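Entry 12.
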Amino acid sequence: MSKNVLIVHASPRLKGNSSMLAAEFERGAREAENDVKTIQVGRANIAGCIACEYCFAHEGVCCQQDDMQDFYPLLHWADVLIFATPMYYYNFPAQLRAFQDRMFCGVAKPFGIPQVGLLFCFEDDDVERCRPAVDALKVCADYCKQEFIGEVIVPSVYEAGAIEGNPGLQQAYEFGRFIG
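Predicted 3D structure (tokens):
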């Protein structure tokens, strides 16, 4: 059964390593006959949540008018949410954090995304350094009653294109083929 897969690409560097991971995942997910859409949040104009709870009084509608308004319909469309991101300062980039914060309005009107996964790359060669960020995403998925379906973690890549030939690209492709 095909699924609606939303890839949230969080790097401001559009042709970097996380972009290549996302592209391979997307190729695999499309081959598995899923409907796939990718959004670029790394350069989007998204403010953080201001905790006003306007969304609770307005059926999940956020009062802030920025690029997030374009993404909310896709969050309601998606069956699977895949975050494709580099690691900045041993965490997710601020652009992704703002996106995730603004998903708070999904508490008022649930998005209904049953599955979430992660494509994650970074410069450090110690894969354990990313665990706190990965664990935080898993805790959030659990809180939102989402199944965490997997991760592809690629350490030791920094310069754009450094991931070329890395086994992580094949893993991302296979992860995409797994969806469906």
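Annotation: The chain has a mean pLDDT of 96. The chain has one domain: 4-43+76-98+114-178.
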